[in-house]
Amino acid sequence: MPTPSTIDRLPEDILRQLQQLLQDPRCTQLEATAKINEILAAEGHEERVTKSSVNRYAVKMKEIGDKLRQSREVAQMYIAQVGAAPQGQTGLLINEMLRSMAFELSLKMQEADVEDPEAMSATIGQLKNLALTMQRLEQSATINVKREAEIRKQAVEQAADKAADVAQAAGVSAETIQRIRRDVLMMAG
């Protein structure tokens, strides 16, 4: 198994600072390297990062960011074509979170040591469980959409019946009542 890079061995808080520096367009990689090395020295860490390791990390993060942006664009196109309004914001949020987790897991699989069958088996098992979870969530969302549609249909039918009752009580003709009921149902459907 390859040795983790100096970037991978950074403490979490310092790694976050490096990420922030790399996202700042005013900060060059050379400046980010110097700043992180200053922080490491100030906190008593012996290890230092090199410009090469910072550059490799920046390139890797850019590639990952580009892939993630592409997957989001594809998802947005899909949602725009198919429509996602019935699902509700919570369902969309959960689906997006699971998609992100699946994406991150696939990245880890690409970087995993393929020589280790146990690690690959565990990763494949995780991916399988994640896919099953997503399938169940999608099925639940479909059931919820159908249930909401049925509830709306019943509410419209009740409104049409109520309108017909009010019209009948007012002495409106049966033909007009039928037209009112039909028009109310058509507006909803």
Blueprint (SSEs and pairs):
Elements: H1 12-23, H2 29-42, H3 51-82, H4 89-111, H5 117-169, H6 174-188
Feature tags:
189 residues, 6 helices, mainly alpha, single chain, elongated
Q: How confident is the prediction overall: mean pLDDT?
A: 81
Instruction: Indicate the low-confidence ranges by residue numbers.
Output: none
Instruction: Summarize the biggest pleated sheet.
Output: none
Strand composition percent: under 5%
Shape: elongated
The structure class reads mainly alpha
Give the radius of gyration. 29 Å
Task: Provide the succession of SSEs.
Answer: HHHHHH
Q: Alpha-carbon distance between the termini?
A: 61 Å
What proportion of the residues is helical, as a percent range? Answer: over 70%
Structure description:
The chain has 189 residues and is mainly α. It has a domain of 83 residues. It is elongated and about 90 Å long. The mean pLDDT is 81.
